[in-house]
Amino acid sequence: MSIGNGVKEPGSARLALSLAFAGFISGLAIIAIYEATLPTITANKAEELRQAVFRVLPGVTRIRKFESTPEGLKENPEARGEEVVYGGYDPQGALVGYAINSAGPGFQDTIRVLYGYAPAERRVLGMWILESRETPGLGDKIYKDAEFVANFEDLAIEPQIVAVKKGTRSAPNEIDAITGATISSKAVARIINEGHQRWKGRLPAPDGQPGIEEAEQ
Amino acid sequence: MAREQSSYESFIKGLWRENPVFVQVLGMCPMLAVTNTALNSLVMGLATLFVLMGSSFLVASLKHLIPKQVRISLYIIIIATFVTIADYTILALLPAVHKELGAFIPLIVANCMILGRQEAFASRHGVRMAVVDAAGMSAGFMFALLALGGVRELLGNGSLFGVDLFGPGFEPWVIMILPPGGFITLGLLLLLFNWIAARKRAFLAEVAATEREML
C-alpha cells in the first residue's frame, strides 16, 4: 500500500473492480471447500443417525426406514424430514421398536432428539441427542451425562414423562433432572412427550407391526 | 514499528509483551464465550491461528495491489474466506467439536484482533515478518484462551481436557462454567498480568537506579 506519496487517487471503477475480483476469488474458494467437504459432512451425519438408531434401540441388528403416509407406514429408504421413523429388528426378525425423531425448544436453541419406543410395552428404550446448543458444562449434560441418558432406558411413556429433582425418581415414568440444568432436562422430557403424542396414533397396532420379511426384497 | 525487529522478537511480543488479550484486550467475544473447557479453547485457538496466518500472508503478499480506499473491505473478504474454510474443515473432520463451538467459528470474522493485525502490521511489512507476527499473536491468543479455559474447566467441572482430576468428592463451582465465571476469571488474570508487568517495571527501574549510583 502506498500511503501519502502523492500517487494519483485510483478511480471508482478500479476500486469496484478490485472488490468484485476479490469477491469472485473468495466465492470460488468457498464453493471449492464446500464441494470438497460436503460428501464427508453428509456421510458423517448419516452415520451419526444410523449409530443413534442402534443406540436407542438395544439389541437391534437390522433397521428399516419408514415414512408415515395417510395409508399407514410405508418403507422408503430415501425418505427425509419429519415424517420418518426407523423400525429396528432383532436377529430373529421381530420388531424391537421404533426410533422416532422429535424436536423442540431447549434452553438455548432447538434440541433434536431421537428416542427408541417399544409400541407393545409403551416404553422408551433409549434416548440420543442429535442436535443441541445447550449451555456447555450445564445443559450439554443432557447428552454428556451417562447417568441422565440412562434414565431413558426402559422408561414408561404414559401418562407422560416427568422430570423430577435429582435423586427423587420413584415412578416408572419419572426421570432424574440434571442439577443446574432443570430447563434442559424438562425440555428433553417434553420433546419426547410431544413426539409420542404426534406418533402414537400413526404407528400400526402391536399385532400389525411390519415384519422384517418385507424388507428383504 | 520503525525499527526492524528480529523474527524472534516479533514472535515473542505477541506471546507476551503485546499479548492480544492480556495487554491489548482484543478478541473478548470468543475469549469469554468458548473458554468454558480447555478443549474448546484449544480448537478455537487453532482455528484463529489458521485464519490469522493465512490472512496476514495474503495481505502482506498483495499489499501493493490493494487500493487503500477499500482495504478494510478487502481484508474482511480475505478473513471471511479463511474463516469459511476453517468452518467447513472442522465440520468435516471434527463434527463433535464443531457442535460445541457452534456459532463462534463463523464469528472469528468479527475478531478485531485479526483485522487489527492486517491494518497495523501485515499491510506494512514483508511477507515473512507478517507471518511471524501472526504466529506470535495467535500463540498469545491461544495462551490466553487456554489459561482462561483451563482455570474455568478445572474449577467449574473438576477436570482438564475432559480428564477428571479431583474425584467424586469435588463440588464443581458451577458459576465458573457460566458467563460470570468468564468475566471473573478474565478480571483476575488481567490483574495478575498487570501485577507481573508492574513488578518487572519496578525491578528494571531499581536496576537502573543502582547502575547510576555505581557510576
TrEMBL record, chain A:
Cofactor annotation: FMN
Location relative to the cell: Cell inner membrane
Record bears the keyword Transmembrane: yes
UniProt keyword list: Cell inner membrane, Cell membrane, Electron transport, Flavoprotein, FMN, Membrane, Phosphoprotein, Translocase, Transmembrane, Transmembrane helix, Transport
A single MF term (Gene Ontology): FMN binding
Predominant place of localization: membrane
A GO CC term attached to the entry: plasma membrane
Top EC class, one word: translocase
Entry membrane topology: Single-pass membrane protein
Signal peptide (from-to): none
Highest taxon of the lineage: Bacteria
Pfam families: FMN_bind
Residues the record lists as FMN phosphoryl threonine modifications: 182
Domain FMN-binding per the UniProt entry, residue ranges: 106-199
Translocase keyword on record: yes
InterPro entries from the UniProt entry: FMN-bd, Ion_transpt_RnfG/RsxG
Listed GO biological process terms: electron transport chain
TM annotation in the entry: 12-34
EC number, UniProt record: 7.-.-.-
Homology family: Belongs to the RnfG family.
PANTHER family xrefs: ION-TRANSLOCATING OXIDOREDUCTASE COMPLEX SUBUNIT G
General function of this protein: Part of a membrane-bound complex that couples electron transfer with translocation of ions across the membrane.
Assembly and oligomerization: The complex is composed of six subunits: RnfA, RnfB, RnfC, RnfD, RnfE and RnfG.
Annotated protein name in UniProt: Ion-translocating oxidoreductase complex subunit G
Annotated source species: Candidatus Sedimenticola endophacoides
UniProtKB/TrEMBL annotation, chain B:
Membrane topology: Multi-pass membrane protein
InterPro entries attached to this UniProt entry: NqrDE/RnfAE, RnfE
EC number assigned by the record: 7.-.-.-
Localization per record: Cell inner membrane; Endomembrane system
Entry keyword annotation includes Coiled coil: no
One GO biological process term: electron transport chain
Cellular component, GO annotation: endomembrane system; plasma membrane
Enzyme class: translocase
Transmembrane segments: 45-62, 74-95, 101-118, 130-152, 172-193
Keywords: Cell inner membrane, Cell membrane, Electron transport, Membrane, Translocase, Transmembrane, Transmembrane helix, Transport
Superkingdom to which the source organism belongs: Bacteria
Quaternary assembly: The complex is composed of six subunits: RnfA, RnfB, RnfC, RnfD, RnfE and RnfG.
Family: Belongs to the NqrDE/RnfAE family.
Function: Part of a membrane-bound complex that couples electron transfer with translocation of ions across the membrane.
Protein known as: Ion-translocating oxidoreductase complex subunit E
Organism: Candidatus Sedimenticola endophacoides
GN (gene name): rnfE
